[in-house]
Every structure is written in structure tokens, then in C-alpha cells.
Amino acid sequence: MMPPILYAGLTLDRAHPIRRDGDIVPLMHQEGARYLPYWRGRQLVSMSPPPGAVLLDRDTGLALAEATGGSCLLLGMDDAGPLLGLDISALDAGEEGPDLGGRWVILRAVGGLLPSQEAALLAYARGMLVWREKTRFCSSCGGGLIFQDSGHSAKCTNPECGALAFTRSDPAIIMLVTDDHDRALLGRQPIWTPGMYSCLAGFVEPGESLEDAVAREVWEEAGIRVRSSSYVASQPWPFPQSLMIGFTARSDGGEPVADSHEIEEVRWFTRYARPRSWNPGSPVRADADGTAAAP
């Protein structure tokens, strides 16, 4: 059985029948309501053992919602009541963020340290609130939007338009390319920590299948042709709004050539033990001599 993939496998009841009723205000006031806050791209976690997401109680959440006028949406329901995402980015605070009993962190940096369900919940909340943050006007006519479905869709207020906008997930592919010598093809971007390499990845373009995207991205980024590819698993990737679709791919090998526009270096790596610093929330780390960890 495949181990859980980071940000995937959320078991929360997304409460579609309740969500379709559309009115978020009664849910915000409901007994047992809890809020997952979002502040300028960061989310609130407690890093003292054990690490975990910080949920605000109903009264604290209501006070922050009133003070900031921030976006609020229903994430789902559990036995205690509604779970709501709340954007409080309008709240003035110092560099460390508002003092609400935790640390404000970028999820991508700490996701692998959190319990799997909490990491998945924060990823879901982040994806929704980033969409709300970026969805401010109608893409058809430029008119204003009114949010409905408890925050999960928006409708243009222009009576001559009335277009609907829904959340979106951009398909992206990530692939572990290997050759007949049991080597893995890994690359690195110049902004990454020295010595850090990752599987190649990219976005799916219009007019191509997932398998086509795998072959194209490997060729574009590394100058290597793949002869076959196989789906492995998928993963929510809300950075900002992707669905990451994982493949393995086989190649006849060859000397890779990095695409200088995106990739600083791309190389074949032999199989080796993972370094102790590796965690499932980080790109694969490999030593600079080419003998370190392929996944």
C-alpha cells in the first residue's frame, strides 16, 4: 500500500449540501465554529511538540472577521461544527504577524513536519483563500463579484453578464526519470539551497495529454527523450493552485543539457541512501558529487 502523500487524503466532510445553501454568516456564528486564519501568504501553526495547525475559536474568529472584513469560507464540517478559512491579511502587524498563539509560516516550508490530516487541511484552506485573494473581478466583463456557495463560487454583479467563477486547479506533472543503468535524472533551480536537486516538473499545456507533457518537459528542461511513462499518484499543490500529477518515466539515457531559462543544472544520479535532513515535504536533496538520493 502506498504511504500517504503530503497534502492528500483529507477526510474532512466538505458538506456540499450545507455549502450550497450559500450563506456563510450563520455558519460563522454557529456553536463550535473554528477558524483557520491566513495572513499575507502565511498560516498559523504551533511548532512546539507536537506541531500542528492552530484553530481559532468562534469568538476570536468573529472578532477578526469584523475587524478585517476578510474573506471567509466554509471548508467543511466535523463533529464539533463548521471549519472556516479566514483571510485576515488586512490586519496590521509586525514582520512576525499577528500574535494569535502560534507562528506564521509558509506552508511549503513546514508541511512535512505536520500531522498528515492537518497538513492536508491547511493546504485546502490555502488553496481556497489564495483563489479568493486573486479572484476580485469578473474575467468576462471586469464587473464586481459576489461570492456564494459559502465562499466556493462567485457571480458577476453585472446584470448583462452574470458569469460564474469557480475555484480552479492547474494540472502540473512531476516525473522521476530513470535509465537502464538505474540512474535518476534530477535538476535544480538557481534559487534553491546549494546541493538541492529535484525531479523535473512543469505545467500541462493546452492540447496535450499528461504523458505528452511528461515527454515535452523532460526534453525542454534536460534535452533527454523518454520512451515511456506511467502514472503513480497525484497531490494537491496549492502554491498557488495546482494539482501535481506524479509519473515515472524511462529513458535511453544520454547526456543531459540544462535549459538555461529555468534550470541551473541537470544530471544523472546513482541510487544512494536519503540524507538524514530529507523529509517528505521537501524536494529530493542530493550531494553535489552525484552519488546522493534519488527517491
Structure description:
20% of the residues lie in helices and 30% in strands. With 295 residues, the chain is α+β, with helices and mostly antiparallel strands. It folds into 3 domains: 16-134, Nucleoside Triphosphate Pyrophosphohydrolase; 137-167, no CATH class; 170-270, Nucleoside Triphosphate Pyrophosphohydrolase (Alpha-Beta Complex). The strands form 3 sheets. Strands 1, 2, 3, 4, 5 and 6 form a 6-stranded mixed sheet that branches. It is globular.
List keywords for this structure.
six-stranded mixed β-sheet, 20% helix, 295 residues, Nucleoside Triphosphate Pyrophosphohydrolase, 3 domains, disordered C terminus, alpha+beta
CATH topology of the largest domain: Nucleoside Triphosphate Pyrophosphohydrolase
Q: State the helix count.
A: 6
Count of β-strands: 15
CATH architecture of the largest domain: Alpha-Beta Complex
How many angstroms separate the termini?
17 Å
H-E order: HHEEEHEEEHHEEEEEEHEEE
Strand portion, in percent? Answer: 25-35%
Mean pLDDT, as a whole number? 90
